[in-house]
Design brief:
The complex is a heterodimer of chains A (253) and B (77). Helices cover 38% and strands 18% of the residues of chain A. Chain A has one domain: 3-Layer(aba) Sandwich (Rossmann fold), CATH 3.40.50. A 7-stranded mixed β-sheet of chain A has the order 3-2-4-5-7-6-8, with helices on both faces. Chain A contains 10 helices and 8 strands. With 253 residues, chain A is an alpha/beta fold. Chain B has 77 residues and is α+β, with helices and mostly antiparallel strands. Chain B has one domain: Alpha-Beta Plaits. Helix content of chain B is 13%, strand content 29%. In chain B, the strands form 2 sheets. In chain B, strands 1-4 form a two-stranded antiparallel sheet. The longest helix of chain B has 5 residues. Classes of the chains: A alpha/beta (253), B alpha+beta (77). The interface between A and B is large, with 36 and 37 residues.
């Protein structure tokens, strides 16, 4: 069959999610944010939560997340997304309240809010994009930067004696009684995208059902900050990031 | 034996030419335009080998800009 014979509405198996706004994202080519946005838009549509979903956008590259996914959003101050999400989930029980945060937002300036929201067991889903760098501000060292990794502020590589160790925040959150689901995923291959989608679905279900705090950490790339092509940065991530940030469920109760 | 055939369409003006779809494709269907650019100056992805497509939607799964649509037919004859 010729492509023209195949390209018909009845044969369509995949198309752009309905809830993704019809505008181009400001993300760099190959950025993992786009994939995660698409997964969230697909899931909210599939789960029928369009009128019940409230997102909390962070400060960082994903600061304009509210421009791309067509649900209700609140923009929080830097790192304060879990605190804002706490208020939203307490005032709107039964709603899907999720925050979407990067590693500079969640694990640096927002560590206190994150840990206390998780410790209180707020019924929120936290989507945590960990690319080991401050992408928006020009590739500075983040708490999650790997040892030896070169960034704008560690041009000779991160040193443990000077800069400390890469922070594994999901392992910290796993110890707290308020959390019900902690998982670490990636979006570098089609199979990984499907697993991440299943993980975010579970986190969203937990949020709606009021089971406690769910955290989905997504180990991501920042090809601009890492100074690589998108394909190279995916390979680099699989080779180096997964060693420090192994994928899989840390907690599932 | 059922033979699966697929086809993809690419929203070329939304494409940012990141090449992740071409890397993810198991059948080497996609490639980036070597010279042509879209409205925003990116070498967009295009279908270089349409007959090889198996409609697995791997390209659409990894596309950060959701600009790929996938179609699939199963020939039962």
């Amino acid at each position: 069959m010729k492509p023209e014979e195949i390209i018909k509405p009845e044969n369509k198996i995949y198309s752009r999610p309905r809830l993704l706004d019809d505008r181009n994202t400001h993300y760099c080519p190959g950025c993992s944010h786009g994939v995660v946005h698409r997964i969230i838009a697909e899931l909210i549509d599939e789960m029928g939560l369009e009128d019940k979903a409230i997102g909390v956008a962070p400060v960082g590259c994903a600061v304009f997340a509210y421009n791309y996914i067509d649900v209700d959003w609140v923009e929080a101050a830097h790192g304060r997304a879990p605190a804002v999400a706490t208020a939203l989930s307490r005032l709107n029980p039964g709603h899907l309240v999720f925050s979407y945060q990067g590693d500079g937002d969640l694990s640096a300036i927002g560590t206190a809010e994150t840990i206390h929201a998780a410790n209180r067991g707020e019924n929120i889903a936290i989507i945590f994009i960990n690319n080991g760098i401050y992408g928006m501000t020009g590739g500075q060292m983040a708490p999650t930067t790997l040892l030896g990794m070169k960034t704008a502020t560690t041009p000779y590589g991160r040193r443990a004696d000077l800069n400390g160790y890469p922070l594994r925040i999901s392992e910290l959150l796993e110890r707290l009684d308020g959390t019900c689901y902690i998982t670490r995923q990636a979006v570098h291959t089609a199979a990984a995208v499907r697993k991440t989608k299943a993980a975010i679905r579970k986190a969203f279900e937990n949020s709606v059902a009021g089971r406690g705090t769910s955290v989905v950490e997504i180990v991501s790339t920042c090809n601009s900050g890492w100074k690589m092509t998108p394909a190279q940065s995916n390979e680099w991530m699989a080779e180096h990031m997964f060693e420090r940030y192994p994928l899989g469920d840390l907690k599932n109760i | 034996m059922a033979k699966v055939q697929g086809a993809v369409t690419i929203d070329t003006n939304r494409c940012k030419g990141c090449n992740l779809c071409a890397v993810a494709c198991p059948a080497d269907v996609l490639s980036l335009q070597p010279k042509e650019v879209n409205d925003r100056g990116y070498h967009y992805a295009y279908v270089v080998n349409p007959d090889a497509c198996i409609g697995c939607s791997s390209c659409a799964m990894v596309c950060p800009d959701a600009c790929i649509e996938v179609y699939r037919v199963v020939n039962k004859s």
